Amino acid sequence: MGRIENLNISFLKPNPVYKAGDTIQGSVNFRVNEPTRVNRIKLRALGKAIVHWIETQEPNDDRHIVTYESNEIYLNEEIILYDKENDDQLFNSDDYSFDFFIQLPNNAPTSFEHEIGQIRYNLNAKIEIPWAFGKSTKKSFTVISEFDLNEYPSLRLGLGVSDEKYLCCWPCRSSPIIANFSLLKGGYVPGEGIVFDITINNRTNKAINCMNVSLVQKIKFRANFKTKTSSRTVENFRFPSRVQEKSILNWNNSVLVIPPTCPTSNKNSKIIDISYLVLFDFCASGPHFPKEIAIPISIGTIPLKLQNENQQQNGIIDYEESKFGPYPDKILFHESEFEDLVEIENEKFKPLYPFLKDN
Question: Which of these, 115, 148, 262, 268, could form a disulfide with 109 (CB 3.0-4.6 Å)?
Answer without folding.
Answer: 268
